[in-house]
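<instruction>
Derive structure tokens from the sequence
<data>
Labelled lines for chain and fold:
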Amino acid sequence: MTTAPDSPEKFRSLEIIGLLPAGGQATRLAPLPMSKELYPIGFRSDQTGMRPKVVSHYLLERMRSAGVRKAFFILRPGKWDIPQYYGDGSLLNMHLGYLTIHVPYGVPYTLNQAYPFVQEAMIALGFPDILFEPADAFVELVKHQEKTQADVMLGLFPTENYQKAGMVDFEPESGQVFQIIEKPQQTHLRYMWAIALWTPRFTEFLHHFLQTHTPGRELPIGDVIQAAIAAGLSVNAVPFPQGSYRDIGTPDDLMQAIRDLTPDRT
């Protein structure tokens, strides 16, 4: 697929819309009394005092700090507690919308549900059951995208759990991404990607890629980004060497996240 180049001026003027895929079953944490994206971890303060802070709140805050004022949760049917909790987004001074996904083929299909609503926007992708630092990671992606005009920007975090991650081979000086390897059994690579920012060129690529892809095993979004590299789209990365990343989708990681974000009262 070939895509006509876009001008830097066009990308700078685009609205950034957040996408938060929430189509999972949370089987590793089952049974839960709520969607895992609403699990309370830590606390926030408002005009009435201290309140529990749910895990997806952290991601929305980080998106908002990068200029995102509109975002979509993409839900599997049954996760109605998420729109009930966030409503219109006024809790975060954002505009939130909710879409549903009805096919079980992975994150790319989930994201594509938003295509009619976001095809002319920049997209900020984050996973609402993930905690990461630094808090300004999306801000850095926006800055680097404006500088490089890359079609896709990836935020990279060091990890030793490479068998559970999309590991990234990239050039440290320029940030150019050469390859994404999903869940390798062995690797010398140090960084995984966890957040992304992309232009309408990649949104369009994703949409057309899925029209020609035959659903089978669950398709990782990293495989679509790799296909975009092969098709000539530019993919760059911003590594955060001192950054951290925690998926709360397992009991061990959930317990550690609670420990990290609960104030020590002793």
The two ends are 60 Å apart (CA to CA). Residues 35 and 79 are 6 Å apart (CA to CA). Confidence is low (pLDDT under 50) at residues 1-5.
